[in-house]
Structure formats: C-alpha cells, structure tokens
Amino acid sequence: MRTPLCDRFGIDLPIFGFTPSEHVAAAISRAGGLGVLGCVRFNAAEELDAVLSWMDENTDGKPYGVDIVMPAKVPAEGSQTDLTKLIPEGHRSFVDKVLQDLSVPPLPDDTDERAGVLGWLHSVARSHVDVALNHRISLIANALGSPPADVISRAHEAGVPVAALAGKGAHALRHVDGGVDLVVAQGHEAGGHTGEIASMVLVPEVVDAVGDRAPVLAAGGIGSGRQMAAALALGASGVWTGSIWLTTEEYHQTMPGSTAMQRALVSATSADTVRTRVYTGKPARLLKTRWTEAWAAPEAPDPLPMPLQNLLVSHAHNRIHAADDPTVVSMPVGQIVGRMNRIRPVAEVIADLVEGYEEAVSRLDKTR
Amino acid sequence: MRTPLCDRFGIDLPIFGFTPSEHVAAAISRAGGLGVLGCVRFNAAEELDAVLSWMDENTDGKPYGVDIVMPAKVPAEGSQTDLTKLIPEGHRSFVDKVLQDLSVPPLPDDTDERAGVLGWLHSVARSHVDVALNHRISLIANALGSPPADVISRAHEAGVPVAALAGKGAHALRHVDGGVDLVVAQGHEAGGHTGEIASMVLVPEVVDAVGDRAPVLAAGGIGSGRQMAAALALGASGVWTGSIWLTTEEYHQTMPGSTAMQRALVSATSADTVRTRVYTGKPARLLKTRWTEAWAAPEAPDPLPMPLQNLLVSHAHNRIHAADDPTVVSMPVGQIVGRMNRIRPVAEVIADLVEGYEEAVSRLDKTR
C-alpha cells in the first residue's frame, strides 16, 4: 500500500494517526504510518518540549507530526480569569447540578487540578509551534480552520509542511490559497469537530476542489482496510485516523484513568455518538453518554461559544475523568466506534488496516 | 464492472436506480442497470397497472423493479377523511401562512388536484403489490422498514426477490430474518428517509451483519464511479442510487413541472440539504429551500407523525409544484446534489459511472 504521499513524507504507509498520547503516536510512526501528537492538552510549553524530546528518541528515526489548535476566526485571547468572568452563573449551576444528578464525585482535596484547556488560546498554540519547530517534526496540523499566515510561514521556513482540516470544498480551497500543503477532508461521521457532509461525498469534493495543488487525506469513518480502500477510491492520497487509536493498549498503558473511557468505547455501537457543541462550543462528535444526554435535555442551556464552553466544562471533565464511570464519559469519537470492540496494540491495528486494504483492492480488481 | 449480483438479476451493471419516473426507470434498465419505479405517487391501482404495462414494453426485455412504501410499524390505515381529522388546526394555519409568506400562489380553480398521498397507506401499498406481481418485475423494494411478512411470501411465491432499506446493522438483520433477499444500506448522506450513520461506516457494518445471507447494496452519496468503487471496496455487491436520476433529461421530459426543481438541484451544493421530518413525519433528507427553512424557524410547529404530516403538506406540495419557483422546492435529495450540475441523459450518467469506476479501480491497483 503505497501512494506518492509515502515518498513525500518518508513513510511506508499513507496512514496518519492523530492521538493525544505520545506513546501511541510513536508506535504509529514506528509501524510505518505517521503519528501526529495532539498538543491541546499541554498548557505549559516545557511539558510539550519534554514530550517531543521523548518522541525524537522513541520513533526509530521515523517521521512524526504535531496537531495544534489554532482557530483562525475565534477571538480566543485574554487570561483565563478574564474569560472565566464571561461564563453565566446559570451555566455553572447547570453543570454542578448535572454532575450531582449523575453521581460524579467531587475531586479529592489534594488534587492538582489541570487549569482549563489553555491550548485553545492563540498565545498558547503559538508557544506550541515554537517548541515543536525545535524538534524533528515532519508535519504541523491545525485541527480547526485555516492556520494563521504567520504560523504557515514559520513552518515553511523550517521546511515543515502544514495540514488543515476541511469540512467543505470551499474550506479546502481557502486552506491551499493560504499555503496549506496537505488537506484533511473530514466527514460528518468523524469524531471531534466535524461538519455536516459525509466522507463519501466530501472526499471527492475536496479532491476536485484542490486539484493538484495539495494531496488530500480522508478522515471520518476509517477504521478498517476496506474503509481505507474506499477513501483511496474516492481520490484521497491517504487517510487521517483518530478514533481507532483510543482503544489501543499503548493508550491504556500511558493515559491515566482511561479504563472507563475504553470500556465505554468498546461497548458502543455506531449509533452511540452525537454531534454537539457541549465539548468546546463548536459542533463536535462525542460518545453519547449520560453527560451528553443531560445537555440534550429540554431544560439544558445552549452551550457557550468557543473558548468559553471548554472553560465551563473543564472542571467537570476532571471530575468525570476521576469518576471512572463508563456511563458518564465525555469523549470525542467517530461513528467508527461501533467497530472498536477490543483493546489492541497499535501495530496490530496497522497490520489489520494493511491486510484489509490489500483484500479489498484484490476483490475490486476481480470485478473488472 | 460485474459482481455476482449481475448474474442473479440478469443485469450488466450492479447499479440499481430508484426513480418515480417510468421513463427514467426504463432508461436505466435499457442501459444495463436495474431501474426501480417508485410507486408511492400512484393512488389508483389502474394508473400503476398502465405504467407497468408501458415498462414491460419499453425495457427491451431487461429486468426492472418496483419500490413500494410499506411502513411496518406505522398504524397507517383509515380513510383519508378520518386521518385528516387528526391534523391540528394550528398546523394547517401555519402551512397556509408559510405559503403566503413565500408567495406561493393558490392553485387555479380548475386544477384536478391529487388527493393526498395514499401510497403511504397499507391498503394502497398492498394494491400496488397485487398490480406489480401481474407484471414482468424482478424486484419489490420496500422504502421504509421491513416489508410485511405476507408481502414477502407473495413475492417469493411469484419468484420475485424483495429488498429493504437499512440504516443500522440491526435493521438489516431484522430484514434477512424476515426473508428479505437484498439489503440496501442507506447512509446518512442519502436523500429521503435516512438514518444517522454515514455510508462509510454503515456499509461494512451491514455487510458484516448479514454475512452471506443476503447481498448488500450501498446507498447514499453515490453519484460517480469513484463513489461506486468506494461502495464496493466497503463490501457492497452493488449500488442503489436515487438522487442522480432527478437531473436527467428523461426526468425533465416526462415529469410535468420539474423545471424549477431541476434548476434548484443543479445550483445546489453538498451543504444545501437538511434532514427533517417535514416531508412525511419521519426524518428524510431534502433540498434546503425557503420551505424547509420556514419549518426550521423557532415559531414553526413540530411536524406531525407519519402519515399525518404528508397529508398536511400534500396540498402545499401541489401549490409549490405549480408555483415553479426554485427557492420554494420541496424535494428529497442526498448530499450528492452538489455534484448534480447538469441535465444529462440517463445513458450518459451510467457511462460516466462505469468509466469512473474503471479509472478508480486501476488507480487503486497501482497502490499495491
């Protein structure tokens, strides 16, 4: 399974794997794909620096990338204190009541609680770019909209290509007009921030919109070799995957408190997700749990705009995380969750993708 | 492009084309696919009988099928008068006001107005089955849920296979358990009644759920050879298409008053659809127009359950149809509408599907 993208990035397989775990990202790169580390969880630049040093040393010299959230259109600045003042009291009391109703215990007094998610702020995201460019990275991806022009310029000066996610052909055109090198066409079925157009329609739309100006990765609904073959049949040069790495052994071993989340994912069907604004303020597909259902109730307030919604729920997320209850998980995941039924090593997931791909392509070949 | 389904149905191409126009259906069959005539528009059995006689004579002896709406779970019986009494006055006045706001003129006094859509009623659907079994049909499809057991038995006695649409793996299993011979996995991106799971995830889910008990057709998002190759890569044995036939020359020539609808479809993008209950009472994807937007307004009432909603809007549909205004169309269509940009003959659409399929499969073959 090779496409021209493999040569361009020096990888064996055109499989890009997004994950917040450096252990998973490194395993994806070591297995021949390109692991992309999600940086939004790092508030302190020093913390990211240390993790990327670890990546440099644990990827067998193979390429890896980083994913940084830089929402181009959101006025996402100001200190956390300033922003916190903008959160209505009614929203706070709703969150408190939901946590009580769902029997989510308070955090122990000695918890060193993570302060909000500052990675959504531009200044923090730019500090991530600074840090990442000092490491052996092969890609900077922006998880939300077109990356700012200065970030693209700095990446290009360092010889690092830039990727951006698109939910419409028009988004993709805006990205390449701004200098983006690699477009991720993310369909409705994807986990996290996602639009309304499904991969089957979106991928060829984006491929045709950007033409030969940039290769396109298909994202959304890809967890098997058949789906990877479908993505390439649609014109993609490779795939961008995220959800499928959440149920890996490496994720479990290195992300504290992931047991309840993995139990919830393993038992979920493809119908057990919901696209909602409750995670960040922008529509994102999450696992459907008692937490998302509480926000869908008639008495629930409308979620706040980004970045306020994430600040509003960040303490709740910490409590939910500590509660370790599969029915109250708050987790972005795509519809492919219905097929994530076992905890497996990263290398096995990759081997299955390759085997399934080969089988699908031979099967298609026989129809000619 | 051949799959075992071609031998089973005696067709050259595993392309099933659903359409309310007998001229389009016949052209699909003549071009090597299997045209499936939607019967819900026929209230009188005699009318359907005459049209199927025409099909018998205009398909060059090639196979064709019929699609009949038999909602298994809906208590869809009673005379139109009885049902009409169940429609709240507030809903009627809302529809009247919207039509006025949208400048949709009343019908001329001498209009021979179609009476509701009785095809949704079980007794009418069964009369369609009676009529169809007297013709040279190769398939009876049920557009909504599992077909009733007696209908499956009668079709099988006549040697006619039965197809049913599924939006989840569980639906598909229920269908084959009930004797259905062919499952149509219809993704979220499809036009008309459609579920939440996108084709990329749904097709392999349904294929694996039914195993070798029934072949699976992929529906939703399929309008090009690349998409057809993707569907087969996902494990489908063929494709079920609907939207793409709405912008054919044959449709235009034979469906009176389709000019405004076709103008609206040709200029729409993939983002210009909405999944809503306003057409029948069940969620269906429609072209987004000023009509659907009016129902999405805060002051709009919730749509009524099936079959009442269709009775409520049937007169409005007649007025909208006569108004011939592309901005006030009420029409089921999938997200593929973004690529339906020209009025073309059916044979050209089929030729493009075949050519694009061959190109996609050769391209995939080179990645091995």
From TrEMBL, chains A, B:
The keyword Flavoprotein applies. SUPFAM superfamilies: Inosine monophosphate dehydrogenase (IMPDH) (SSF51412). The keyword Flavoprotein applies. Keywords: Flavoprotein, FMN, Monooxygenase, Oxidoreductase. One of its GO terms (molecular function) is monooxygenase activity. Transmembrane segments: none annotated. This is Nitronate monooxygenase family protein. It comes from Amycolatopsis ultiminotia.
